[in-house]
């Protein structure tokens, strides 16, 4: 049976349709399943370098809660860029009865910014900091992946308890990360997804 050749206009319409479907799928995947992010600062060094690109699993966020050790992209609390704690007078650089402890409560609303940090404490965990290392429920955590904290005031902090449905986040570069020590734990609803792989530059390609 002889197949009738397609007209030029028909072939063009088919091409437009294929491109539209491909773009729709790509946008859908990025919006709901996997999204790329660029690392903007050195707060996660040496694990993630400035300018490195990572892939974030967004759909997995709907099927389970984060675990200690996960690297998450999330919305920080409003005021995180100025290290605002949700309890006035509390936090490592605030005067008050609980000075010398991490911020135990964030501001009630989230920022539109995207941050990337590591989960170091979950709901109900007691978290303290000694020489930049996390003491979780009285046990010093094994954190061979972190950069040394130094002797700053934020490297040795007393104990707080992470509230229900919230997570205490810290950068791996403990001496150069503005994190939950300053602005408190984040709410579960503020999590965008978990970073699971690096895809750029080529020498950094691999799972996290």
UniProtKB/TrEMBL annotation:
Molecular-function GO terms, alphabetical: serine-type endopeptidase activity; signal peptidase activity
The organism's place on the tree of life at top rank: Bacteria
Record's keyword annotation contains Aminoacyl-tRNA synthetase: no
Membrane-protein topology: Single-pass type II membrane protein
Subcellular location: Cell membrane; Membrane
UniProt keyword Cell cycle, yes or no: no
Transmembrane segments: 12-33
Reactions catalysed: Cleavage of hydrophobic, N-terminal signal or leader sequences from secreted and periplasmic proteins
Enzyme class: hydrolase
EC number in record: 3.4.21.89
Every Peptidase S26 domain range: 13-200
Gene3D superfamilies membership: Umud Fragment, subunit A
Family annotation (InterPro entries): LexA/Signal_pep-like_sf, Pept_S26A_signal_pept_1, Pept_S26A_signal_pept_1_CS, Pept_S26A_signal_pept_1_Lys-AS, Pept_S26A_signal_pept_1_Ser-AS, Peptidase_S26
Segment forming the signal sequence: none
Keywords: Hydrolase, Membrane, Protease, Transmembrane, Transmembrane helix
Pfam family, one: Peptidase_S26
Entry-linked SUPFAM superfamilies: LexA/Signal peptidase
GO biological process terms on file: signal peptide processing
Active site: 43, 117
Name of the protein in its database record: Signal peptidase I
């Amino acid at each position: 049976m002889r197949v009738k050749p397609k007209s030029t206009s028909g072939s063009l319409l088919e091409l437009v349709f294929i491109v539209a479907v491909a773009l729709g799928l790509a946008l859908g995947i990025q919006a709901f399943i996997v999204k790329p992010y660029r690392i903007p600062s050195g707060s996660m060094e040496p694990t993630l370098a400035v300018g490195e690109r990572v892939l974030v699993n967004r759909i997995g966020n709907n099927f389970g809660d984060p675990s200690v050790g996960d690297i998450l992209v999330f919305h920080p609390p409003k005021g995180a860029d100025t290290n605002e704690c949700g309890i006035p007078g509390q936090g490592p650089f605030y005067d008050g009865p609980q000075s010398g402890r991490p911020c135990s409560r964030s501001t009630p609303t989230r920022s539109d910014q995207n941050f990337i940090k590591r989960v170091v404490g979950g709901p109900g965990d007691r978290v303290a900091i000694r020489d930049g290392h996390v003491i979780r429920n009285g046990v010093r955590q094994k954190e061979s992946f972190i950069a040394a904290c130094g002797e700053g005031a934020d490297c040795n902090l007393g104990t707080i308890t992470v509230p229900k449905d919230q997570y205490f986040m810290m950068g791996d570069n403990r001496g150069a990360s503005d994190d939950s020590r300053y602005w408190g734990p984040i709410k579960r609803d503020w999590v965008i997804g978990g970073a699971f792989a690096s895809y750029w530059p080529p020498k950094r390609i691999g799972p996290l």
